[in-house]
Amino acid sequence: MIAMVVSAGLAGCTGGSAAPEPTPSPPASAPATSPAPTPTAAAEPTPEPLTAPVRPPEMSQPDEAGAIAAAEYALLVAHYAVVSGDLTEWDRLATSDCGFCANIRQSVTDAYGPGGRLEGGAFTLGDGTVVATDPSMNIFAVDIPYANAAVNEYDSAGALVDTEPPGDGIFTLEVIPARGGWRLLGAAARGSDE
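Above: the chain's sequence. Below: its structure in token form.
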């Protein structure tokens, strides 16, 4: 699996408490005692809900700007599918001959199907650039620099199954404008050490 995951940030909860009610003083003849402290549970961080990426307006254009927007959006949707298990938008973008698309789908299905999950792997994308076009078929090849942190896979019991190491390099994606929006024909990543 290509690791392209952003972390779903965690928000901590801090709660203030009202000042305690004063307790009456014990009678003078009774020995003074102090109540035993009551243990309190620490607040657990709550994961922020995942939100699907929004199609950029440039994707309405069948030109280089649209191609770059479509390629960047495809990577964001791939990431969303990986961290959420939701393949709905991924399936809309993917073409049947796209091996990269099939690999993302298989990785998500393998992890989430039996009740597992994928976590971690914050990633960043650089600015995309059109590096080639096929005017006869209206296909655009777009290079996008990327960097990603490690991705952890957990099984249904919460046990760590596998870790995909961090990496960086360049994605090359082939996209084509089609009825209903841009489609992803294929993608490949080459690491910075290649």
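The CA atoms of residues 10 and 47 lie 5 Å apart.
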